[in-house]
Amino acid sequence: MNPKQSLRLFGFLLTFATALATDLMPRQDSQIRKPRPIIAQYHQKGVTDCATFVLSTDRKTLYVGARDTVVALDTARAKINNQKGMVRWAPTREIKDVCKLKGKQEMDCLNFIRVLVQLNDTHLYICGTYAFKPTCAYIDLQTFAVVTDADGNLRLQDGKGVTPYTNKYKNTAILIDGELYAATKNDFQGIDPIITRTLGSKTILKTEQWMESDATFVASINIPTAPDDQKIYFFFSETAKEFNYLEKVVVSRVARVCKNDAGGEKLLQKKWTTFVKATLSCTPEGQLPYSVIQHVFALPHHGGDTVLYAVFTPQWKMGDLWSSAVCAFSLAAINKVFDDGQFKEQSSFSQWMPYEGEVPDPRPGSCSITPTSHNTHSFMRQHYVMNEKIQPIGNRPLLVQPNVKYTQITVHEVHNSLGRTYYVMFLGTDQGIIHKAVIVGNEAYIVEEILLLVRPDAIRSLLLFPEEGILHVGHGKGVLQISVANCGIHKSCTDCIAARDPYCAWNGRRCKEIQISNTNRDNLKQDIEGGRPEIGCSRSSSSSRRSRASPSSITVVVVMTLVFFSFPDNLKMEGPGCRSLSKANKASGQEKLLLRDSQSLPQGSLCQEAANSSKICCVKGGGGSFQNILAKNNCLDFDLAYGEDSRGVVAVEGI
């Protein structure tokens, strides 16, 4: 590769890194300054892997499924400090010994609670891995103990097809009218994915081989509708066999079944007859798809539709770093693909092609299918994949975030000082961080990055109490409660309005949380759309306190690498609208150059001059091209002067 080609490659990589690095990060990086205030936390010796939450029907108790344990936490006073009950349900010594004889390690031979539902007013239904022997049991809510038989033995049930054999496999389950709908791995090796219906009085149903062996389930939802048209949706990722590529391609799917499915009379006996699946697309313009779904949250919107917010990661890492995307899907659009879309069929050459023939009546996937709909049953055994991909709202992700892997999502509908509705996403990461992002139009902006855990640990569960404004966070060592609002970090009118946080507004004296019950909001100032302090801050209020957004000089950091771009962990960006930078992992061959004023840099130069109270920084590359960076209000607006470049990733910090 000649020098000119190398320069162009370097410029392309720097352009890509710049786009990622400046992508919608929070203006306030609160965890660098001080830890996020925690309302309450639950931590008990021996209680780990708090991965499953369920709120009691009276909303007074939070049940937590953990390793070998189920805990009941009191939420009556909106705090979880008080433990109401605990059940220890570990495998017996004999069961553990059998597990070890199968070649499993001690950690594999425990009981991870993976299904936890409130069956009725008197009992919980729980299922766990039980040392590679999926098992279910009942908990009596009055005594808060596992139910036993007349001889005092635990009343256990086979959990195969309901919960996985090991904690390494994901699963999902949902209880509807006393019936349990579950998706999991059905075998010891984890190569037989299955969707089942158990409990209740209806026929037990399961899928045929309609999903690939690597299918990974992440969520299931049900939106109540007419009794004869209720549907359950399952979300998962799997290898796409319909693509004839040399490399394995993973896609995200949504599958749908009907609640009134009774199975077949001749064909598909005790099998789903309404199963269909389609591909979910979450692809930023000009980039590779984010094809591995991680979690989904459903929120009914005004107008009758339900919006599904889903987090995705790409199939492959960029170097050693993940990135994530959030896409929103209309449930009505999903149903339209299932109800009116074209099917695929497998040809004689093992390729999946669009099906051009006649579709039987009743249509496959419809809830009007009966046990005697033999033509439909025969057709759907080979035609269960939809040809059309389901596109997100706006045909693009709401948010694309580098250097992070989102594991959980929940969404809160809030109203700003003028009564306008906004949707705020809380995104849990695999490092114990939560991003709070507000959706404006078809785009989301991270307004706060919250570091909750001293040691990195994945966020396992998120449960929002919308009325109370409290978020419950499950992690490896316990449960935390935090407020959705953190207005105290904004010390001036400028900071408060520029934060663009729907929960916070300036009342003339301080940045105040907008109370849900507060109807008098006339004196509260916000600008969620643009974060412009000038529309709500008087000259005196904005100048009375020297804002962090008005540094006397700037520091320019140019980060160059041919592998990937990340940032030092002690770097912040402060000031209205500026975006903070995430922690860096130093890559092999990475160079970090710190320059002040007009210091020189290898094969380039830096100049700084004042013009109408603005700072102009020029980075000039060895190829003769350069980039002008205008720091208006100490935020970077990139204005590329020439096409060919030797760009750097540039950030400012007040000094």
Automatic annotation (TrEMBL):
Question: According to the UniProt entry, which residue ranges have a biased composition of type Low complexity?
Answer: 538-548
> What is the annotated localization of this protein?
Membrane
Looking up SUPFAM superfamilies in the UniProt record yields:
Plexin repeat, Sema domain
Q: Which UniProt keywords apply?
A: Disulfide bond, Glycoprotein, Membrane, Signal
Superkingdom of source: Eukaryota
The record's listing under Gene3D superfamilies reads: ligand-binding face of the semaphorins, domain 2, YVTN repeat-like/Quinoprotein amine dehydrogenase
Q: Which residues form the signal peptide?
A: 1-21
Give the GO cellular component terms, alphabetically: plasma membrane
Work out whether the entry's keyword set contains Glycoprotein. Answer: yes
- What name does this protein carry? Semaphorin-4A
The species is: Podarcis lilfordi (Lilford's wall lizard)
Record domain Sema: where: 22-484
User: Per the record, where are the segments of Basic and acidic residues compositional bias?
Assistant: 523-532
Which GO molecular function terms does the record list? chemorepellent activity; semaphorin receptor binding
Gene Ontology BP annotations: axon guidance; neural crest cell migration; positive regulation of cell migration; semaphorin-plexin signaling pathway
Q: What Pfam families does this protein's entry cite? A: PSI, Sema
| Chief place where the protein resides | membrane
Region (Disordered) residue ranges read 523-548
Write down the PANTHER family for this protein, in alphabetical order: SEMAPHORIN, SEMAPHORIN-4A
